[in-house]
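ok so i was messing around last nite and threw this chain in just to see what happens. nothing serious, just curious
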Amino acid sequence: MIEIKEYRGHIRNWEALSRELGFDASGLSREERERRILTEAYKKWGGRMADHMHGMFAFALWDDEEQKLFALRDQFGTKPFYYYITADHRLLYGTMIRDIMKQPGFVKEVNEEMLQIYLSLTYAAGEDTFLKGVKKLMPGHYLEWKDGKLTITRYWTPEFHVDGSRSLEEYADEIHESMKQMLREVKTPDEKAESFLSGGVDSSYVFALSDCEMADTCGYDEERFDESPLAKQTADMLGRHLSRLRVTPEDYFSVVPYTMYNMEQPLGDASAIVFTLGCMAAAKHTKICYSGEGSDEMFGGYNMYRNARKYGDNLPNFYVGNTNIMKEDEKKRILRNYNPEVLPIHLVRDIYKETEGLDPLSRMQDVDIQIWLEGDIYLNVDKMSTAAGLEIRMPITDTRMFAIASRLPAAYKVTEDENKVAFRTAASKVLPKEVAFRKKLGFIVPIRVWMADSRYNGDVIRLFHSESAERFFHVDEINRIFDEYVGGNSDLWRKVWTIYTFLVWYEEYFVKR
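result:
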């Protein structure tokens, strides 16, 4: 007997899988058919079952015949899975850390070493978390627990096989046909969805190919940060409706504790707070929303990728992913307990071993796919949508899309003047060129302006002088950074914000509760 113990996700190719696995899914609810797929796929393929599945998923099942627990996380880590071994050698597990914390045998302790990683990367990277002993099952891995023994196996690794024999237009055609397939699979005809929309090509492309009548966007009164007019232009061009949420600094700062609590780990990505508000607003009128994550990392969307050739063989010495805001000398100055053996670069050593001989751009992308996406982007999407009661589906995040991206020559990804060249070329088949090739703005937030304003930074000041801050930091040093920021060095906002979000999270999990 196979019993599903935990499951969160959405299996896209359920129709093909149900036929291959020999059952009729037509009369089953979504939950019934997906649980049936997990059971039958495990019986047929065991640890290789995810090779046949497309979508977003993390689950655990109990194999009564083998007397073992089997748990698996999807290839990109879009859904989380955690585990913890108690002092009396029992395995606690789940897709939410808070569920593990409630179980007998859990001991709540902060993992202070993760703070060193966090201050550089702004998220909890790698398999460890901020809760001592709580580990992530990493993307593309499954675990087995039998007779008190834990075994973890990697079943999928991102691999790049550059193929320069095809033209840019041929690749763009392949991307476009695959995108259309993703949008056909991502929901059933009876489901109704909306789509998040910014000024960028990713969300615009997804929205254009979808049958969504409504898009959701966020905007600010500060015009230079506000992408919502660009989203309105795209929606109008497509003849669709747009719902715009006006985000004020009062709204923004009021929801930070809620965000850090539901995130379960601190996240120093300022856009996460806006995303929280966006999910809450969208959930008022839809249960399913599309989002365009994954394109930048797969197809070469970040401006730093243009420097890949210049970085060359030096990459393994410094590149740890999309963010690296604080160096070791600075962390030594501000932290009360600094361990020189805990370095962000150690998290990516094995990844660089896997990509020896590849071009520098592919190596940078591989780090971001394995570390940044899982630790920041997908964590944010999953936690905040779940908290709001919204289901987010990401059509671009799919192994079949990566299979195309992994073959692209560097010139079809980035040039001196452009990024995501092949992807944008594909998008231009349904979008005007001025939209498809619009300069990447990113999910920008006016936080660098708001946090320097005495009307809004009261809680930052409070926490920077708190007992919690005294426990982890040399308070005079972090306040020196804050004072310099308020004094006009706005480039320091990310350091201030990263320290602040950790302190908010710590207060939520260790002071209030």
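not much to say yet. The longest strand covers residues 2-11.
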